[in-house]
Fold each of these.
Amino acid sequence: MDSNGVDEQEMKLVQGAAGYVLEDVPHLSDYILDLPTYPNPLQSNPAYSVVRQYFVDEDDTVPQKIVVHKDSPRGTHFRRAGPRQKVYFKPADVRACIVTCGGLCPGLNTVIREIVCGLHYMYGVTEVLGVNCGFSGFYSKNTVTLTPKDVSDIHKRGGTMLGTSRGGHDTSKIVDNIQDREINQVYIIGGDGTQKGASAIYKEIRRRGLKVAVAGIPKTIDNDIPVIDKSFGFDTAVEEAQRAINAAHVEATSVENGIGLVKLMGRYSGFIAMYATLASRDVDCCLIPESPFYLEGKGGLYEFIAKRLRENGHMVIVVAEGAGQDLVAESIEQQDASGNKLLKDVGLWMSLKIKEHFAKQRKMDITLKYIDPTYMIRAIPANASDNVYSTLLAQSAVHGAMAGYTGFISGLVNGRQTYIPFNRITEKQNKVVITDRMWARMLSSTNQPSFMNPPNGTTEATC
Ligand SMILES: Nc1ncnc2c1ncn2[C@@H]1O[C@H](COP(=O)(O)OP(=O)(O)OP(=O)(O)O)[C@@H](O)[C@H]1O
Ligand SMILES: O=P(O)(O)OC[C@H]1O[C@](O)(CO)[C@@H](O)[C@@H]1O
Ligand SMILES: [Mg+2]
């Protein structure tokens, strides 16, 4: 550990001129000496051998910050993903496994498919195992064999063909199992919690000195993983959310003083709500965990609803599930199996409060329809662009593991495929920054109140 309590094993920094820093990912050769290398089989693959400069140069890196000033330091860079001239595994010796953990997300099956097909068709690897039902499946379930034929059309289905779970991460039992099954490449698909688990597995594997590459593929429809441009499945979820918003709009416009209220996923981050609102243009108010709001008094939600209804005769409100949690009165805080806070139903609560408020006021008769498409936006197959994105992430992970990298996730940074060390994506969550331009664009599209000045005594929701 260094003086900041950061595990040095996780920090592989390379400094260069003009403030250049490479936050590199670990490599099997960092802790196993004299590993043999082999020519990359892609050299003789007809599909790839025609591509000029198909192999990624060892020195290629991708900057995290692309907007720079004349004299500003070049800053953090990540290793560029892609196939290397040399690989650290003989294809016939590879025994890979894939596991999916956490909540569902469009594209999970595509990632599974493309890891299997990438290993098989690009590298000639034939032994790929599927671990059923998340981390606990390593020690409590039998594995399944995955061939290109088994996965050929799974990308057309939502969910994960392997099953998933929360909780049940037991590092030693998992690594014992990896050792017992002679697995030497582990592909772990999941969100922030999963990648913390993946990092623990990598560290234990390294402690035991095993030649096992651990690669993470970040997944979460909430888009709450930092550093990467966005997570796969996010676009599909935003697109599906449009259907709920459209329905809310149709319901609201078909009656006098109609209100359509839609609750969307987003536990700590309101990206889905914000992008769905921006895409739709039918939304009058978007509430997210990062932006506190209040109901009563001047500048509050009730006042705004009354104003919009007087102006337009209808309105649509989108609320992210993690918004306003402090307002929803309930004393017992509960957690799921992974230790994530279980949220109170802010949508249901808001619909009751709004109805109650206008009934009490007796100035305006409203009709409110509450639509909760929560699971519908994540239990669907990926759209075309998420399918392509998931494919590239999976292929990059395969190239990285074959090249001997380990303890990394494959992620898109400024439009380029990269390898990012686990600690960079698990140390904090990505959130909507309400002082950034995107939130300002959203506010200017809805013209909603900023909720910046709650009257004294008003409860403000903070998250
Ligand atoms: N700090 C941690 N250390 C080790 N394992 C963890 C940690 N946090 C979570 N996990 C494990 O990771 C798995 C998934 O975690 P979690 O349920 O939080 O979902 P997630 O990966 O964050 O995905 P989602 O975006 O759906 O929340 C669980 O099996 C859990 O036990
Ligand atoms: O799958 P569960 O346990 O119902 O959890 C739902 C949570 O998972 C997510 O879909 C992803 O983290 C959140 O948006 C949501 O709060
Ligand atoms: Mg999570």
Note: The longest strand covers residues 258-264.
Amino acid sequence: MANTPLHTQFDSIAALRQALTSRSLSAHELAVSALDAAEARADLNAFLHIDRDLTLAQAHAADKLLASGQDAPALAGVPIAHKDVFVTRGWRSTAGSKMLANYVSPFDATVVERLHEAGAVSLGKLNCDEFAMGSGNENSAFGPARNPWDTSTIPGGSSGGSAAAVAAGLVMAATGTDTGGSVRQPAALCGVSGIKPTYGTVSRFGMIAYGSSLDQAGPIARHAQDLLDILDPISGFDPRDSTSLEHCNGSANVPGRIRSQYEQALQAQEAGGSLPLKGLRIGVPKEFVNDKLDADVAKAVQAALQAFEALGAVRVEVSLPRTELSIPTYYVIAPAEASSNLSRYDGVRYGHRAAQYGDLAEMTSRSRTEAFGPEVLRRIMVGTYVLSHGYYDAYYLQAQRVRHMIADDFQRAFADHCDVIMGPVTPTTAKHIGDNREDPVAEWLADIYTLGVSLAGLPAMSVPCGFGGAQGRLPIGLQIIGNYFHEGQLLAVAHRYQQATDWHQRKPEQQ
Ligand SMILES: NC(=O)C[C@H](N)C(=O)O
């Protein structure tokens, strides 16, 4: 296809890096080809904001570093892009909302800053559900992003633009955020890989807040190795985020921690020879096989589990008895936190201000009513209700109690039975755009397999594991869940699977 970005010739960030350091390719050439391709795929509506001059200035800086002969930073020249909830100097940061349609931040989010320092070249800002609230990217004020495998379907949400851009080959990797599944779910529906690390691992400074006890940043890329190349440099303690951890199970939370854990895990796996995952105990929650799961998704997940067994792993049944309860629990806690976080958009300090109003109270209420979309308004209403006097104990406090039980269930499974837990990411393949519009609760129910992990603050991934849906053309993801701070091990397990299978190498037709 015309406008194929040059980086798509390379099947990993590592291979691209080699071409860049040997100067057989320049960051400038790469960036121009990627920008052209991104503009040519406007049909995907994956990008909300592209600014060629800003991107080319970053590419120019990367080329200077690469030409200097010294050790260029690890991602010098690698084309990436950011979910539009990370604030960026220069590019607008909208969070997919009319409220912030013209907002330009005076500073970069830590994630953006760290990738910039590592030399990555940003192509711009990616579409997402408004304030990350949604599972289909249909709640964006700027229209839905589309799934490159079938543009009549959703890419998943809320990091839909990120997954669509990676799946369409427009960038090598993209940043995302995951509050209740927003990295894993779009990765699954777009046939790419994604990881949400342990809560507190990656700084949220400059990440527009939604549910603060749940929000975590994570990358989306083609495969586990590329995820590592992005996750490792963005992870690490940041004093500007009060939830950022200084230590992870005794190791300092610094870039390099996840990489060294990954390398150690790979080394230990070498001892297994042709059975690298010998003895790995995979917990399969019996509650994940239920009437909500489509047959084609169940089949692909079963086949993936068999592939893991062929690599030496063993399957054990585990129980996560409160899986169904994770939906009402999450949809009390997340809206409660959202209602508080979004109270800052008052028409005075940030964002949209109504053109006409009588007094201050009317100005605030009009500004908010005009600029927030229906899903955001719904969650603010739910959140305000569950926090209100007389209902707080019955809903919010109760949800917090169940949240602890859900986290305990995972710990029981890990302590007694298994090293990792596997299952589906989503109950179905990508739905058609518009299918869930009449019934917002249907969209909430689709989060059943991802919410427990988020409530517990655990790390989890999605890796491509097959196809289903109409004509078997839509991707399916396998979820791999680890215990706290086991990101490196998760990535190593996923890497072995990806060495043995080629689902992650499949590309949609137009590429
Ligand atoms: N933000 C997320 O992780 C997506 C989740 N479906 C939500 O709407 O809250």
Note: Residues 392-416 form the longest helix (25 residues).
Amino acid sequence: MLEVRGLVKRHGGLPVFHGVDLAVASGEFVAVLGESGVGKSTLLNCIAGLEPADGGEIVLAGQRLRGLGDEALARLRREQLGFVFQAFHVLPHLDVAQNIGLPLRLLGRRDEAGIADRVGQMLDQVGLGGLGTRLPQTLSGGQLQRVAIARALVHRPRLILADEPTGNLDPATAATVMDLLVDQVHAQGAACVLVTHSRAAAARADRVRVLHTDGLRAAAAD
Ligand SMILES: Nc1ncnc2c1ncn2[C@@H]1O[C@H](COP(=O)(O)OP(=O)(O)OP(=O)(O)O)[C@@H](O)[C@H]1O
């Protein structure tokens, strides 16, 4: 589903990482750990085509990202990807249900009843049942985190990229969110790359890798 080969990234001429290799098959869950600032979010952004790589190759769902135009990249993201951003990126002027339903609308779905059903299902799954009409500014950080997760999974993406999805959650809610991600991977056959500082979250993955400036390596306990 995802192949990263010899990835190189610089920011403003300064090296972030080089020599990053990663292959993730459908139905496989990989956690990426690493020191703060080593480039974990940057790696996810490169995989999503949100930041250009400076070298190496990324192949997502059989398509090589290099050389794809903005339009093709946007379509690939819409159709294949669910991204849980560290900073949520929940749209402030849309209510919770509209935020969660957005990926379905961007895919061209117009069956309002079907969209409402699926959004309701996601609200229940992340423990936000009844909060669909609330605006984001009335939610807590942990609730916003769960909106972001529901929105990333609503269209059953083939590849899930999750940047610290449990960072703002209490241990019980974090475990529920990890259940959702693991279910999406194992029951639905999605691939998942999870960036986290949480050893508990990483323990749910099939493989754990640690990002260093010169590549991704197996964790000591792996
Ligand atoms: N837009 C940018 N312009 C310049 N430098 C950047 C930019 N984004 C990130 N960086 C730098 O790239 C490096 C990697 O940042 P990144 O956010 O990917 O790290 P991270 O491993 O995800 O960190 P954390 O665990 O703290 O979230 C850092 O040194 C950061 O300062």
Note: The chain has one domain: 28-45+78-218.
